[in-house]
Write a structure and sequence with these properties.
single chain; mainly alpha; Amino acid/polyamine transporter I; 20 helices; 0% strand; disordered N terminus
């Protein structure tokens, strides 16, 4: 077998990991209008709180990245801690964490392919004459082939292109969100007078609705844990991991707040709740006219390749991690001559073709968020267990290198419970409201598919060893 991916990327600068995660603010785009419908101007606070939650979770993941340099991301961390516990249930939980993480990231190409199609239709209404599914399949095929070529040799082989795309991704978001506020087009009254929807009632249904919205926001606002995933591959993991994480977190905090504040204050809750055109396109046309809207949309489309790259790379690594840990068949762990998980990438391409058939990005986002909440819950549980063990071994002394304070296992354990079952149940409620119980059962079925796959692979291994 060819050399592993860790050997190909072990000299990454922390700025490369920072660059990979800089596409994360784009994740807000599919949800801007959706959040305005259900949360009105309170959506601004949901995004801000969710990014702050990301600091608690992702700094913990950064510590695990340094402690387990041979692990691959959240799935690898959980498998190392829970899989090595000797308890059958915890071993399965480690694999289920990886499965949830894969389901969270695998659909990124399809989600943003559909978003790209919406932008193209928004700037060129003549495209409405072409069947929507045909447009999605054509553009999706181009996106997936490009991702396969970009990831064939790993991160370092296209670092320059990655930097360029990330600069492109941030510039239009900053300009589109900041310009109308600076020029006085925003009105704070659109926020203060519409803090909650007119139908808002503080009851059990509203509580579950808010849990679901926070669960969906987490999928976007906390996704900069990708900077931690590459921690073991940085030149100096101890120093570079917190640099990348804190930098990404601060950028995300500013951008998520700025974008939603601008959309709500300039366009208004009523417009966001009723429009069928992308909010960022409306914002661009408001500031720069129709021609400016076209230019902004085209730049955003190019920029979306950054987050598609992040999802494609992260999910393929997660699947390889599961295969290396005997959670999935060895097919998914096989690498090409550059040490990259070629088979996992091909599988992800095939799955996204199926997602294209759904033609609705919000449906895919809701299902992805369920997988992400499970992955975060189990990984934070693993961190709390690992941190308590470290505390006992060191007598609550700060460990050498990068480590969070000794009490960090407490907020980690709290957010483990918040992710599952609280966020998870809220996401189920949201899906029921929007798409009905059949969609909920479908999402639960996909999540539960892990268990027969896990059982089958374990039985296969036992027979081979017999």
């Amino acid at each position: 077998m060819s050399k592993t991916s860790s050997n190909t990327c072990d000299k990454l600068s922390w700025t490369v990991g920072f660059s990979v995660a800089l596409g994360v603010p784009l994740l807000i785009i599919p949800s801007i209008e959706y959040f305005a419908i259900y949360a009105a101007a309170f959506s601004v606070f949901i995004w801000g709180i969710s990014v702050l939650e990301g600091f608690i979770q992702n700094m913990a993941y950064g510590e695990m990245a340094v402690d387990f340099p041979d692990a691959s991301g959240l799935p690898g961390f959980a498998e190392k801690i829970l899989g090595g516990s000797g308890h059958g249930a915890q071993q399965i939980a480690g694999g289920f964490c990886a499965w949830g993480y894969c389901l969270a990231w695998i659909p990124i190409p399809s989600i943003f392919t559909i978003t790209i199609v919406d932008l193209l239709i928004g700037i060129c209404p003549a495209l409405e004459a072409v069947p929507r599914l045909v447009l999605i399949l054509i553009i999706g095929a181009a996106v997936l082939i490009m991702m396969l070529l970009m990831n064939r040799k790993g991160l370092s082989s296209h670092a320059g292109l990655q930097y360029a795309l990330n600069i492109i991704s941030l510039v239009p978001l900053i300009v589109l969100a900041l310009y109308p506020l600076v020029t006085g087009q925003g009105h704070l009254s659109n926020i203060s007078r519409h803090l909650f929807p007119d139908s808002f009632r503080f009851d059990a249904k509203t509580l579950f609705l808010m849990f679901g919205l926070f669960g969906m926001a987490e999928w976007s606002a906390c996704a900069w844990e990708t900077a931690a995933i590459y921690g073991p591959e940085y030149r100096d993991p101890v120093k570079d991991t917190p640099k990348a994480l804190i930098s990404c977190g601060l950028v995300c905090l500013v951008m998520f707040l700025l974008i939603q504040i601008s959309c709500v204050s300039v366009l208004g809750v009523d417009t966001l709740s009723t429009t069928k055109r992308p909010a960022m396109l409306l914002l661009a046309e408001q500031s720069f006219g129709e021609a400016g809207g076209v230019i902004a949309a085209l730049i955003l489309i190019i920029a979306m390749f950054t987050i598609i790259q992040t999802g494609f790379s992260g999910s393929s690594r997660a699947m390889k991690s599961m295969s290396d840990a005997d959670m999935l068949p060895p097919f998914f762990g096989k690498t090409n001559q550059y040490g990259m998980p070629q088979n996992a990438m091909l599988f992800i391409m095939a799955i996204n073709v199926v997602f294209f058939l759904m033609q609705d990005s919000s449906t895919i986002v809701a299902a992805s968020s369920m997988g992400y909440s499970i992955a975060n819950s189990l990984c934070l549980f693993a961190y709390a267990r690992h941190k308590r063990t470290k505390n006992r071994e060191r007598g609550h002394r700060q460990s050498a290198g990068f480590a969070m304070p000794s009490f960090w296992y407490i907020p980690a354990a709290v957010f483990s419970v918040i992710n599952f079952p609280i966020f998870f149940l809220g996401l189920m409620y949201l899906m029921k409201l929007d798409y009905g119980m059949p969609t909920v059962f479908l999402a639960l079925g996909v999540l539960a598919l892990f268990f027969p796959l896990y059982t089958w692979n374990r039985q296969r291994l036992k027979k081979r060893r017999a």
